[in-house]
Amino acid sequence: MDPILPYPSPLFLSLILLVITRGISGATFTFINRCDYTVWPGILGNTQLGSTGFELPPDRSAALQGPPGWSGRFWGRTGCNFDANSGVGTCATGDCGSNQVECNGAGAIPPATLAEFTLGSGSLQDFYDVSLVDGYNLPMIVEAISGSGVCGATGCIADLNQRCPAELQVDGGQACRSACEAFGSPEYCCSGAYSTPNTCQPSVYSQIFKSACPRSYSYAYDDATSTFTCTSADYTITFCPSLTSQKSSSYSSTPTTGTPTSVSPVTNISTINGSGSGSGSMDNQTANSWSPSFIAGDSSKAISRFSTHSTLITTLVTLLTFSFHCL
Question: What domains, with CATH codes, occur in the chain?
Answer without folding.
Answer: 25-245 (2.60.110.10)
